[in-house]
Amino acid sequence: MDYFNLALTTLFDMLLYPFRRVHPMGGLTVISVLTGIGMVWLFGKVSNQKKIHRVKTRIKAHLLEMWIFRDNLKVVFKAQGRTLLNTGRYALCSLRALAVIIIPVVLIMIQLQARYGYEPLKPGESTIVRIRYKDAVTLTAMDATLEASPAVVVETPALRIPETGELCYRASVIEPGVHKLTVASADMHVEKTICAGEGGRTMSSMRPGKWLDRLFHPIEPAMPAGLLESIEVGYDSRRISWLGMDFHWIWAFFILSIVAGFSLKRAFGVEV
Predict the structure, then answer these.
(1) Nearest to 242 by CA among 29, 10, 15, 90
(2) Which domains does the chain possess?
(3) Which of 73, 84, 221, 236 has the fewest Cβ atoms nearer than 10 Å?
(4) Is the pLDDT of residue 135 over 80?
């Protein structure tokens, strides 16, 4: 999993490198358009295009039938039933393609979240650092301590929550940049990044341990074997300001990728 995450992260680093100093919409637009093109191409490859064309033609014919014979309720009701039946057939025809498309789209969204989804801390701003154990443990077993680089201040002693296996600290960053936290326990010493200052850098809220967490937090390497499961830094969700609007990056991604896909479907000869 770490090798896969590293390869995918490196690919996105290269794709977005030219846009590192421009407005976030620059890189988002490029990735969204490429995603839309890829979705249309993949849909055409894995779907039954001939069957989709036939079903869509029948739907259009029944809609036309309802308009032409709108004064004949019997004909209209039959046409409505056939339209619903063919709409279901169209959904089934598209289902396999959508199931395939969703996999790369989710991987793309995970990478975009690491670049546009988190708001770095402001200098002097505090946040919670959560250290999770693999199983609920006793208070005495929760022995991890949080050490920090000179630019990071650990403001509180540990708050132990044995019911959930969590150890919580409050920390703040006093100067911009990417800094290190070190969690030291009896069986390991593990580092975690904490970011402050301007947005635009690749960030991860969690250093993961579980397989699913490693999939959704691919930027930092997995936790080594031991009692600790993950280390998480609490960041606010980032908002993008553009053309007088303030929104989460996911709205721009979905709108731009869908518009790009539908705009180019004829160029690829794909029936959607």
Answers:
(1) 29
(2) 2-117+246-264 (no CATH), 120-237 (2.60.40)
(3) 73
(4) no
What single letter denotes the amino acid at residue 4?
F
pLDDT at 207: 94
Interatomic CA distance for residues 141 and 139, integer angstroms: 5
Distance CA 163, CA 184 (A): 21
More confident residue, 41 or 199: 41
Q: What is the pLDDT of residues 201-229, one digit of tens each?
A: 899 999 998 999 999 999 999 998 888 89
Is residue 70 within a helix (H) or strand (E), and if so which, with residue range?
none
Q: Which of 239, 221, 242 is nearest to 230 (CA)?
A: 221
Is the CB of residue 8 less than 8 Å from the CB of residue 233?
A: no
Distance, in Å, from the CA atom of 52 to the CA atom of 93, rounded to the nearest integer, reads 6
- The pLDDT mean for the chain works out to 89
Residue 25 pLDDT level (bands cut at 50, 70, 90):
very high
Question: What DSSP designation does 122 have?
Answer: P
